């Protein structure tokens, strides 16, 4: 039995909140209605559920804002860890067997989770790249890569579309001591769904 529309919207927004996507505040109800193509009552029900869980604060005239949480409930499942032996080679091999379309490249302030993963101070500069990896059959994955800005200065759209990130790091003189591979399934919002050619949610 499919999930109700409001619950799918709630799940998508909850994941985006955990990723730090709404530091400046969530989109308004009208924007969410247009994004998910649903009625206002559906959007409001999703927002009410987020507010009930203490993830957002809704104030008349001030909009909807995320509430900082040190250990958010419903956080993404732990990463799947594998041995370093062979992992780098497998990742590079996959990068060479598939094609990549670069959607966005920018230098941003690292949010708490990103800064912790990269061992940076919160708010430090980080290089963010968003790409879609495809095979001959179609889109395979939507990838967001974060690298400390000082390391990623030579990485532009051209380089990221031609070579795997690990190869670029190696060419930049970075010596990889260990690697962690995370694989997760997420509910696709309107933007991601369009790039992966799947339905929203």
Q: Mind explaining what this structure looks like?
A:
There is one protein chain. The protein is of the alpha+beta class and 201 residues long. The protein folds into two domains: 5-66, Winged helix-like DNA-binding domain superfamily/Winged helix DNA-binding domain (Arc Repressor Mutant, subunit A, Orthogonal Bundle); 87-183, Chorismate lyase, CATH 3.40.1410. It contains nine helices and five strands, in the order H-H-H-E-E-H-E-H-E-E-H-H-H-H. Helix 2 (29-36) crosses helix 3 (40-52). The longest helix is centred in the N-terminal third of the chain and has 14 residues, at 5-18. The radius of gyration is 18 Å and the shape is globular. The model is unreliable at 70-96 (pLDDT under 50).
Q: Tell me the overall shape.
A: globular
Can you tell me the number of structural domains? 2
CATH top-level class of the largest domain: Alpha Beta
Mean pLDDT: 75
Total strands: 5
Helicity, in percent?
A: 25-40%
- Rounded to the nearest angstrom, the radius of gyration is 18 Å
Task: Tell me what the CATH architecture of the largest domain is.
Answer: 3-Layer(aba) Sandwich
Structural class: alpha+beta
Distance between the termini: 14 Å
Strand content: 15-25%
CATH-assigned fold name of the largest domain: Chorismate lyase
